[in-house]
Structures are given as structure tokens and as C-alpha cells.
Amino acid sequence: MAVVQITAAQVKQQLSALGYTTVPDFMIDAYLCKMAKIEPCLVAAGYDDCDLVLIQVYAVTLMALTAYTQRVKSQGAPSGASRSFDYGDNVLNMRDALLALDTSGCTSDLPIDVGQKVGLFLVVGGC
Hints:
By secondary structure, the protein is mainly α. It is about 50% helix and about 5% strand. The chain contains five helices and two strands. Pfam families: DUF7370.
């Protein structure tokens, strides 16, 4: 069984729908190449065609957004060098959707890093 392959045009449509129109074509092609390398895992997992399309679109979109939409939230230096990034909730939601679809973890080695959701932690002191 061959995996239904998404195209660069479909990836561009998805990125455009999210408001990102500046990802270079050669980068989209490279992300699609990375997806092709996990095809054996996707086939072995037995995903249906609909899930395969969604997994591929989400994974390629997230790889592109990892590279192009990191917004520096804070940075340090005089060499306790540190930097933190901010990502929109939509990107985190897409990452969560990808994780829910890819139950076999085929995409886990792809270069996707969109941060993590952070909960609220309060400490209340009393007498």
C-alpha cells in the first residue's frame, strides 16, 4: 500500500490559510522529502487515507512554522545565554491534533518544535 502523497501546492494552500506566505519553495520541497522518509512507518501503522493526508499536512506545516514563526519572547546573554520563544495557540493546537492522529509516533523524529502549553502554577502562603 502506497501512502497518499501531499503536494507542495497543498502545503502552500495550508500555509496561506494560516497567513504564512513567505516560506520558500525549496524549504517546502525539503519538508516533503522528510515526510517521504517516514512513509514505511506510516504504511506499517495502517492509517487510512484521510488520516495520512492530515498527518502529512500537519507535519509539513509544523516543520515550516518551526523554522519561520518563532517569535523571540525573551533572551539573556553575558553568557548564561538563554532564549525563549513564543508560539501561537493555533500552532500548539495543530501539534496536539498531529499527536492525536499519529498514534504510532511516525512523525516524532521530524524537526518539529513548537514549544509546550504551560499551565498556571500558583503558590499561596499563609499564616
